[in-house]
What does this fold into?
Amino acid sequence: MNRDVRDVAVPQQSSTDGVHAERLYGWGMTSPSVADVADPTAVEQLAELVTGAGPRGVIARGLGRSYGDPAQNGGGRVVRTTSLNKILNIDIEHGIVTAQAGVSLHQLMGTMLPLGWFVPVTPGTRYVTVGGAIGADIHGKNHHSAGSFGQHVLSMDLLGADGQIRTLTPATEPELFWATAGGMGLTGIVTQATIAFKKVETARIKADIWRAPDLDGVLAELAATDDKYPYTVAWIDCLSTGRNLGRSVLTCGDFAKLDELPAKVRKDPRKFSPLSLGKVPPVPVSGLLNKMTGRAFNEMWFRKAPVRKEGVIQGVGAFFHPLDGIMEWNRVYGPAGFLQWQFVIPFGTEDTLRQIVERISAHGAPAALTVLKRFGEGSPGYLSFPAKGWTLALDFPTNTPGLAQLLDDMDEKVLEAGGRLYLAKDSRMRPELLAEMYPRLEAFRKLRAEIDPHQVFMSDQARRLHL
Amino acid sequence: MKDSLGAPQSLLVLGGSSDIAMSTARKMAAARTKKIYLAGRPSQRIEDNAAELRTLGATVEVIPFDAAATDDHDKVLSQVFAADDIDVVLLAFGVLGDQAEDEKDPARAVAVAHVNYTGAVSSGIIVGQALKKQGHGSLVVLSSVAAERARRANFIYGSSKAGLDAFAQGLGDSMVGTGVHVMVVRPGFVDTKMTQGKEKTPLSTTPDAVADLIITGLRRGSHTVWAPGAFRYVMSGLRHVPRPLFRRLPM
Ligand SMILES: Cc1cc2nc3c(=O)[nH]c(=O)nc-3n(C[C@H](O)[C@H](O)[C@H](O)COP(=O)(O)OP(=O)(O)OC[C@H]3O[C@@H](n4cnc5c(N)ncnc54)[C@H](O)[C@@H]3O)c2cc1C
Ligand SMILES: NC(=O)c1ccc[n+]([C@@H]2O[C@H](COP(=O)([O-])OP(=O)(O)OC[C@H]3O[C@@H](n4cnc5c(N)ncnc54)[C@H](OP(=O)(O)O)[C@@H]3O)[C@@H](O)[C@H]2O)c1
It folds into this structure.
């Protein structure tokens, strides 16, 4: 397992062989653009792909799970890293893994769970790459207890605009390290990273699941869970009205200890068996999710949840990635696509949270999947999203009437409350708001101007938001 | 860049003093379109348009551009594209001519054809290439219902629009797979300075209504937009009317 990627022979062909024009979307399937896409299979190809990028520059792309346009670069080059997918080194004793940027968290779980180690942070899908996890400095249900992904990266190799690879650690190159974690690919291409994993006795979660009747209820319950569980989340129904407004299902838990598993499972306690439930119809079903079906869906899902159930043993898939069970679920919204809107606002601004939930409910926007969570302290990332407070994430079909105005108004509320939007989810915010939401944006721009004066690293999102 | 709700951030108008274009630009500027280039022949009206759009929060530049001066197109337009990504280009210039006079004077007839067709071919090719280099963007071409079937009363203008329309459709086909979208807009009688003093024909409409249809078409990625929409059906009927009868229709 100790093969260093630098030993791989330099390939004979040119790095640009196989580069082809491709129309790329984000996960929401909106605002595509066409770029020259390269799928390098060796790190040695990367330097030429970067230094030889034309006037429109280059951006890294992982599994394209960000919702909008950060992993697109219209008219320029896109380097998809998914073939750079080797796990380079595993220190079993300390749970330290070095992996190429294109390795997915799915792959890491499959390899590491049987060895008793889990990824330090996982988003709501396992199908993200290490590069994407660093680029967006992603968070999981354990943010309040473990922070963001970048905080578990011990070191990373970054290919810069000059074609050189630098090894960054938070101690030796804090500025570039923290500009890259959360930097949405704009500081360079991460080629590999060394990550500290979390020790687990089993591959199962012991979860407590219970309902909260309304918004006040869920806020109070969540606040009381911070110290009790490393993983917490609430699924909140933003379509219910009146006294049901904000009714929620809380799911909180931790990895089960060996002796907490039923005897049958105890024989193979660290088996990683994520179940896949099949595909959503490959043909987009236009308008499948409207307000009515959204309501019916939420109603069914709320009723299905137990009033209170403790010690439920769940697999990693069921607990962390319920949507991964349905491959290509993003197609249910039909050809118009959808977007996700996620914000964080500080603790103490619960009034704003209430106003936003009320507004969405009143608008009847069919936001079926809504996640509420508490963040802990943010990371030093220049553009990292998490900050101490409440975070709410909602999906909207883009053809929802009045959506543009609704979201613009709510952006203002978020800003007024001292909050911000998540760049990995954003696809539509007004560029002017960004600097107010991210006070370190100017410092990020300055650093970028120093290390990449010609803006070799460029994405559609960077163009849209004048990053 | 267009955002996920289809709102463009930048607009280039060719024929920056056009009333239809101004109605469109006004609506776009009120939303997300904050960078606007008005290209056209220098005039008070184009400056006034620019000033008004600025009050809506847009940054506006006026670019001297003559559709008839095809030799200069490349230079003028390249400058715009070098400075910025352009999400939407609205090709709006056009002259109606004076059919009765133009029939008597070949030079006048040619001038109409030159602006409406040749000028559009020249700038359309350049814009198509530039958008292709960006990997995204829309070109909106203001054709006319007159392009669908040339009429006795305005066949010089009508034939120039027919040529423009066919050109724009072909350009759109050539752009498949490049990220570039070409949309042909076919208005009927629109109440603008072009038609001032002319008698309104049935299904007449306003620049504001055409602007709304353009913006919706852009969001949907339509290839053809009729204004008003009813023309789609009217023209599909008229297309098959025998010529002797068509000639005598009161339109
Ligand atoms: C169902 C679902 C649930 C999600 N849940 C969560 C969640 O709970 N928490 C959360 O934080 N996020 C969540 N996300 C968002 C997702 O985790 C991030 O968008 C993540 O960045 C996606 O990784 P990717 O490999 O698909 O990257 P892409 O989407 O391809 O790229 C994302 C960004 O990372 C950059 N990047 C990619 N690779 C590299 C590299 N090698 N070097 C430098 N930059 C690079 C890209 O340029 C781009 O800016 C969710 C997404 C989905 C679809
Ligand atoms: N109004 C209608 O009923 C109608 C119907 C169908 C289609 N259309 C088409 O819609 C488009 C816009 O028309 P409109 O109704 O908005 O009328 P408009 O206000 O008269 O706009 C046409 C514009 O074209 C410009 N133009 C003419 N010659 C030019 C040249 N050589 N170079 C650059 N610009 C030139 C004119 O500006 P300057 O003279 O200042 O240069 C004028 O502002 C035209 O293509 C027209 O044919 C209009």
Notes: Residues B 15, 17-20, 40-41, 43, 65-68, 92-95, 115, 142, 144, 187, 189-190, 192-195 surround NAP (ligand 2) (CB under 6 Å).
